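Quick one: co-fold with PBG.
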Amino acid sequence: MTIAPYPAARFRRNRQSAALRGLVRENSLSPADLIWPVFVRDGEGVEEPVPSMPGVLRRSVDRVAEAAREAHDLGIPAICLFPYTDPALKTEDCAEAWNPENLSNRATRAIKAAVPEMAVMTDVALDPYNINGHDGFVVEGEIINDATVEALVRQALSQAEAGADIIGPSDMMDGRIGAIRAALEAAGHQNVALLSYAAKYASAFYGPFRDAVGASGALKGDKATYQMDPANSDEALRLVERDLSEGADMVMVKPGMPYLDICRRVKDRFGAPTFAYQVSGEYAMLRGAALNGWVDGDRVMLESLMAFKRAGCDGVLTYFAPAAARLLNGQ
Ligand code: PBG
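Sure, here it is.
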């Protein structure tokens, strides 16, 4: 690559007007890039704010279906469901996770009935149902892998039965993608997609989410024996390769902004559909600063989302999805 010497090369020429800036723009962001994570709770006609995530609500199933309709009208293609489970339903065996009538499955059916075009993504992990807040079974203080994978398979099958289009294992157990893929094929769910949380870090940025799903009080210890060490990068590539080889259709890097380097490496290496999760703590930081008047909320929102496209992501899971879609649509 050669660059003409100044003044033959003046980079400001291409920036002189909105028309020229638009012509040379390398990346674009549209509502079609967004997956909207939504919190579901019990009741009817309920919308309850999540204190550590201003602007985010826990919605009852009927309200989730309404929200799905609005999201669809905004051009958002997918919703990802996270249940806020009644503490009385949390047990050591996590049986609520594969109850066909649990909140996530009821919300999936309600969305598919109200807005069949909306893709429903569900979360595979035991933490919303686990009395000790972990993503896997805990035996004598250890998060055990293989028995957890069996439970995750049951959970995934119940989600597929309910009509989920995309299943998102967020648990970070070893071997779960292959096990879930085999079980889905055997049960006739060959078209259910797996979006693997392949490179999920043990991050403090999940704090507000654990409040939102009611897991923070429950969690004993941390998740460092199954989620990744934030110091690692090569390991993310090995995990993505492993999950793709086991049958993942898409992969995710999580959290998002602090891990943009990982997004870029993953996309460059594998060229697979790659997503980032702009997690609860990232949302809370941007919203908190905006609400205090310290940054321009709309602009930092769109700038932060464009960063994922620039880093090679095909799309982003973000709590900003409806607000961003409205802005992008000029509404
Ligand atoms: C748990 C799960 C977490 C998130 C999604 N699924 C939290 C965790 O691993 O403790 C975090 C999402 C967010 O912070 O927005 N299976």
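If it helps, The longest strand covers residues 34-41.
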